[in-house]
Design goal:
The chain is mainly beta. The protein has helices at about 60-65, 155-165, 175-180; strands at about 65-70, 80-85, 95-100, 105-110, 125, 135-140, 145-150, 155, 170, 190-195, 200-205, 205-210, 215-225. Strands 2, 7, 10, 11, 12 and 13 form a 6-stranded antiparallel sheet that branches.
């Protein structure tokens, strides 16, 4: 069969291959629901980098150093026990006495903060007015050596013995502002040189209660007994 070619006609031009057309000259295909195409979508923001900082803790906990229980010459190795204040409703007319030689406490009939026989106790916790609200007060008994070791002070024999000579007057534990002003906060300690010559450090580890519910306190008690 004979095929004839006419003039300068070069024959049919091949259609361009898909995808070779300049995209800049072509309208973008609309995406469903009028949303921008994938090329127009902004990249998703990267999640924030994890912080290297540790979670914050309470000021009292972070500032309170660990106890140094080293015993100096003339004192036995420190013994560890617990102490606490646990008030009863004032309508029961009880006050609590705490002996810091060993952390034991006893109750007696309240008498407006007066004590007939301390019996070796250093602290008294008693209801002041018994109005039905939190009104218990804490103080050192007369003729005792008790003081407050602040939260940022070293927890050691020497610092505790020194703090014991500073005195501890009546404090309304239900008044949080009063407690904080005086330094009676978690991490601080009550220190005493007892009638037996023992150096006692009663750490304030937990405080619970408020102006309505009488406050309870507890924590470890470290005792350096004098040796003969």
């Amino acid at each position: 069969m004979t095929v004839a070619f006419g003039g300068k006609d070069s024959g049919p031009v091949a259609a361009p291959a898909p995808g070779t057309v300049d995209s800049a000259t072509q309208p973008a295909s609309p995406s469903p629901s009028g949303m921008p195409s994938s090329k127009e979508q902004e990249p998703e923001p990267e999640p924030p980098a994890p912080s290297d900082e540790a979670p914050s803790t309470s000021a009292s906990a972070s500032a309170s150093p660990e106890a140094d229980l080293t015993a100096p010459d003339g004192y036995a190795k420190a013994l560890s026990t617990m102490w606490g204040l646990a008030p009863v409703p004032c309508t029961q007319h009880e006050q609590q006495l705490i002996d810091l030689d060993d952390g034991t406490s006893r109750t007696e009939d309240e008498n407006n903060g007066a004590v007939q026989d301390p019996g070796g106790a250093e602290l008294l916790y008693w209801p002041d007015t018994c109005t039905g609200l939190g009104d218990y007060q804490l103080r050192a008994l007369p003729n005792t050596r008790v003081g407050l070791l602040r939260v940022d002070a070293p927890k050691s024999f020497d610092s505790c013995r020194a703090a014991a000579g500073t005195g501890f007057g009546a404090l309304a534990l239900s008044e949080r502002n009063d407690r904080e002003d005086r330094g009676f906060v978690e991490g601080a300690a009550l220190c005493s040189v007892t009638d037996k010559g023992t150096v006692a450090m009663a750490v304030i580890e937990h405080i619970s209660g408020d102006a309505v519910d009488d406050v309870s306190v507890s924590g470890p008690l470290y005792v350096w007994a004098a040796t003969p």
